[in-house]
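Quick start: read one record
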Amino acid sequence: MKSNLLYPSLITGIIVMLCIPGGAFADAPEVLAFTAASLTGASGDLATAFVEEYPDYEVTWNLAGTQDLKTQVENGALPDVFISASAKYTKQMKEDGWFVEDTVSDLVSNWIIVILPKDNPADITSLADLANPGVMIAMGTEDVPVGINTRLVIDKIAAVDEYGEEWKDAVFENTVTYEVSEPGVVEKVKLGEVDAGFVYKSSYAAAQDELMALEIEKDLNELQYYSIAILEEATNPEGAADFVDFLLGKIGQGILADFGFTPAA
């Protein structure tokens, strides 16, 4: 089950470190958090607030798609905390014994939304417009959490007579890029390389000055639950426990809400 192989380079993720003010980098106990890439926007504020509350620690984030983080752990990586954007991958890792059983908790939730460049060159004003000829769309790959939920949402929309299977087929025909992480979709839209992208609502909340958005009503949407857990082989279990308590507490949840995440309950 668990490998002793050296884990591969983390170049697929985004490594962000925060040191204690005035402290030597190597002297502060590290909390290493493998974290779903869609929390990238909130990660800086969360780390800063955590270190203010727990100044004896430093936080290191590895931000990547949940499926990539899972693979890294299975190949020998030893984070202290794992934050997943996928109930599927959380269940698999829990069943395989990677997590301290009673530490697996829901952290936050998130809805799917369609983002558009600020100048909206394709003049998209409704979900129906996503099927217009020439529209270019970005979405996550079918194994990325945001991609999994995007497909569930598209199926729900297509089941409505107003849209139908023809709309669904046209949306996939218009999809010109499949990204391996949710921030990848966001960047394609920000850069104007596509006309629309399916992402989480939190990403729009973090970049409203640069983006427009189409809301998807809740009965056609799919709520994504994020989970958090401590690794069985965590090198800093005490720091991990403090970090989990912080993220589940009032300050952590408040920061996450500021970045567009919704409560898990």
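The first helix runs from residue 40 to 53.
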